[in-house]
Request: fold
Amino acid sequence: MQREWSSTLTTLSLLGRDLLVTARPRQWLKNTVVLAPLVFGRQLLNISSVIDAAFATLSFCLAGSAIYFFNDWCDAAADREHPLKCLRPIAAGRLGRRHVWSAIVLLLFGAIVFAWAAGGATPYVVSAYVGLMIGYTVRFKHVALLDIFVIATGFVLRVWAGATAVGVPLSPWLYICTVLLALFLAVAKRRHEVLLLEGVAANHRPALDEYSVPLLDALLHITATATIMTYSLYTFFAPSLPDDHSMMVTIPFVLYGIFRYLYLVYRRDLGGVPEQVLLDDRPLLLTIVVWGLLVLVLLYR
Reply:
């Protein structure tokens, strides 16, 4: 009997680990952009707005995890051709249909509950995000260039959800900065995938064969430059910022952050998993933390 219990607990532990790995909790880091309207809309000291923004963020975390389960289920065969993705629980055969679809239903249910709790148009924005990501998994990610624009749209929807949850208008400056930064990260990710898969990229995903390293380098330079310029102009001209243009002191941190990321892409061959780069590279993480603290001081002093 003791052996049976031990075996059962071991099986459940392994199942829980595989479910957690597939849910990709590290990817939840990208959902912190939902909080951007809360911070830049100067609502951070409003407890009700903080709670609503937290609910919206949790909703996107659960919805994103549901999409990862769906994506891995649809891409299981292709992932087996990838040197890293072949280790994913679904591609490796450790999670079956019942586990996958049960997780998807529960995660989406939780996402809708938190979205309704956030209020405003958040449920509709989250639903639009889920529909967009399903379309991305099924079709859009197989179309070169369109794939990275869909990824950027996903980030815009996150920011929109944060804005509607706290009841502030979506700033045009925040919108364009989000689009450009998301495109920058998406292009860096595609570059890493093309280099990693070398001549067999088409076997994993045909759209990757449409990209070349020189093309992605050009796109990376364009998006990096545009992100820096847009953020710099934002610190001077956005109406919601201090009138003394003190936000301009944050520009060097954004410059260093972009430069550091480019260094990691070109010299360390990173960029395939942006959240991993952020968590593992201490200079980049420290830069973002200092930038964030400085923004809080300037906006709420």
About this structure: The chain has a mean pLDDT of 89. The domain at 23-170 is CATH 1.10.357.140 (Tetracycline Repressor; domain 2).
